[in-house]
Amino acid sequence: MTLADLSIRKHVFAWMLMAALIVFGGISFARLGVSQNPDVDYPIINVQVGLEGASPEVIETDLVEPLEDAVATIEGVKSIASSSRQGRASVTIEFDLARDIDLALQDVQARVAQAARLLPRDVDPPVITKTNPEDQPILWLNLSGDRSPTDLASYVRNVLKDQFQTLPGVGEVMLGGYLERNVRVWLDARRMEAFRLTAGDITSAIQRQHIEVPAGRIETRDREMNVRAEGEAIDVRALARIVVADRNGSPVRLEDVAIVEDGLEDRRRIARSMGRPALGFGIKKQRGANAVEVAHLVKARLEEARATLPEGLTLAINFDGTSIVEEAVHEIQFALLLAAILTGIVCWTFLGSWTSTVNILMAIPTSVIGTFLCMYFFGFTLNTF
To answer: CA 285 from chain center: how many Å?
Structure first.
């Protein structure tokens, strides 16, 4: 007995089946992720590694070539491309479509770990990632105002980032134009010569004394206490008082041979909004999350954050990638509704039967909405592609 015969003989069962598909399909539609791109992993793995201060030629010779040799023998490698620039290198490995990208990622991690002994000692740990269009920020916000870059960076890092990071569906808050806080030590060559010191002596003294190490614990019969060796300077003034040498029984402090100042790292990138200094931060959503819903939550939190901004600061949206997605989904919903109405009009015009027209109109949402149920259980998302 076919489904059609069963539906004709037991029409109540058919109505209940249609109602179940519509109800559970509607629930699945509400839970489906909405994104611009499908949640897929491209067969591409990227390895990023850095060596501060190294020229592109050194990066190519000391970093890129050992990494390329290490990953070249992995199964399923289709092509390898690399780029070298000042202090940074990127190696992109493309695999065959038949290769399991998760297993390929494990192989790349193992080969890069084996090649680590061939890399320079001061190299940054390699960062290995898969390529996925869903990892791009869906929103870019910016904080601008008549404040110093230090104040802007501090407010974004300590206040705004935590406010947006805790929203449901937000995977990461990526900072753009952000400069890390750095303590700069400007050496005085004449004073260093007078005290017979070199830059290496001062560097070694800072590394030796500006450090906090575990000191174990003290145990008694009734108590146990942890011991901390607080060797790190708590501020710039304390750092300047570090003893770097001993000359004729008198200590030579860092402030005697250098100027210590609290500042930021070298400005190699800049962000501006409406002609004023700004800091941008991008909102990345979690995989499978509803991009439109996450954007609405971010915009609501944006209005709350604006109410507490210090005077002279402005928080705005520079880029909203979900507006296109939202409009596309609305257009699809309108097209489906219009198609159902036109189908009903055509059926009634040619058949002249309200019963047949109603059956056809009920079959359309059953098939369309029921599809959302399958999409939800198979892990698909609504997207524009």
So the answer is: 8
Asked if 155 and 309 touch (Cβ cutoff 8 Å), the reply is no
Q: At what angle do helices 291-307 and 322-351 cross, to 10 degrees?
A: 130
Calpha distance 376→34 (Å, rounded): 12
pTM over 0.90: no
Please tell me the distance from the alpha carbon of residue 280 to that of residue 298, in angstroms, as a whole number. 15
Report, as an integer, the average pLDDT of 74-84: 90
Classify 62 as helix, strand or coil.
helix
C-alpha dist (Å) from residue 107 to 77, 127, 136: 11, 14, 25
State the alpha helices, DSSP H only, in the chain.
3-9, 11-31, 56-59, 65-71, 101-115, 149-155, 161-165, 189-194, 199-209, 236-240, 254-257, 291-307, 322-351, 354-377
Q: Is the dihedral of CA 178, 180, 181, 182 positive or negative?
A: negative
* 335: amino acid identity, one letter: A
Nearest to 29 by CA among 385, 384, 368: 368
HEC readout, 208-259: HHCCCEEEEEEECCCCEEEEEECCCCCCHHHHHCCEEEEECCEEEEHHHHEE
Query: Which among 94, 155, 100 has a CA at the least distance from the CA of 308?
Result: 155
The whole-angstrom separation of Cα 224 and Cα 227 is 10
How far apart, in whole angstroms, are the C-alpha atoms of residue 47 and residue 109? 9
Between 175 and 288, residue with greater pLDDT: 175
Give the Cα separation of 7 and 29 in Å (integer): 26
Tally Cβ neighbours within 10 Å of residue 344.
16
Provide the Cα torsion 131, 134, 135, 138; round to 10°.
150
Over range 303-311, report the average pLDDT: 87
- pLDDT tier at 102, thresholds 50, 70, 90: confident
Between CA 178 and CA 151 the distance in angstroms is: 11
What is the rounded distance in angstroms from the CA atom of residue 130 to the CA atom of residue 104? 10
Mean pLDDT of the chain: 83
Angle between helices 322-351 and 354-377 (to 10 degrees): 150
Q: Which residue has the higher pLDDT, 188 or 352?
A: 188
C-alpha distances (whole Å) from 226 to each of 219, 230, 232, 276, 335 are 9, 12, 18, 49, 68
